[in-house]
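Sanity check record (used in CI):
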Amino acid sequence: MQVIHNYHNFPENISTVVTIGTFDGVHIGHRKILDQLISESKKKGLKSVLLTFFPHPRMVIQADNSIKLINTIEERIEILSETDLDYLVIHPFDKDFSNLSAFDFVRDVLVNQLNVKELVVGYDHRFGKNREGDFEQLKEYSHTFDFNIKEIKAQDINNTAVSSTKIRTALQAGDIKTANEFLTTPFFIKGTVVKGQQLGNTIGFPTANIEISQVYKLTPKNGAYIVRATHQENKYFGMLNIGNRPTVNGKNQTIEAHLFDFNNDIYGDEIKIEFLHFLREEQNFHSVEGLKEQLEKDQNDSLNFIQTITPNTAS
Ligand SMILES: Cc1cc2nc3c(=O)[nH]c(=O)nc-3n(C[C@H](O)[C@H](O)[C@H](O)COP(=O)(O)O)c2cc1C
Ligand SMILES: Nc1ncnc2c1ncn2[C@@H]1O[C@H](COP(=O)(O)OP(=O)(O)O)[C@@H](O)[C@H]1O
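Expected output for Riboflavin biosynthesis protein:
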């Protein structure tokens, strides 16, 4: 897969089948669309293109800084690069772009820049300034500019009963099971290991404090989770807490992972954390001793859960 930043940089003389969307999470529904796109491209001898926008339209049009996404743009690139997609075109969604009329968008972007021969879109797709363009208009333009439209039927979209919004809601409720079912692979975060209060070691549970640099990355609900970490290509199971650590008078939210069978200094390193299971709510213990007892219980619960995972997943 080739990543092209800004559709103006798309190579000339390549005929394409295009789909458009944010594809946050790259969930089951998105994968169905991608499968259609890729199989059409192979059948017709075209290149497959996903046109996506970043920053997200809502970050730009409504200057909405509270928006939280399942994947950062870097993560989305990583997930999509594992598919057979030929081109991922990431266009910076700015005010100028948002002012393009539906007609100009089709002519200037899809036809003149991406050389579209076939467009794969949902029946409810809207595009152009103020989302003025609808499916009927697209059909009209497809005659004007001579490309095919492959409609993703309402039932195909509705039957999957999955949406990025539903996954975000599940994660914000700590419902990892539902989120992971929709996502097909576990929800994950990536960050840098930073210094904390240096208390973890003193209670026998050192925790890697993870700092995420993208403010728009969604973090699941506060609480304790069973996780799998990847550090320098090695995988470790562990348990993680998201929260304010009331027991030790924590003021800000932290994300901290204690890895099992691990004893290395990894300050400053990148770490990836996959969420496997929600263990419990964060609690305010009367003493650090109480917290320690709970962590021992969490560790037992985690190890029992990990045993139930198939050898395939545990590898
Ligand atoms: C699995 C797990 C669950 C935790 N649960 C809680 C909790 O319920 N309440 C709490 O105050 N702190 C909880 N903690 C956070 C600990 O307070 C934290 O790891 C400890 O304060 C060490 O912090 P430090 O890494 O900044 O030194 C949890 C940590 C882990 C790894
Ligand atoms: N099993 C482990 N899980 C997580 N971190 C570990 C582990 N063993 C050693 N470490 C190291 O110890 C650090 C955490 O120690 P801790 O006392 O909790 O300090 P801090 O408050 O700075 O996080 C981690 O950042 C990592 O470098």
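The chain has a mean pLDDT of 92. If this sentence no longer matches the regenerated tokens, the check is flagged for review.
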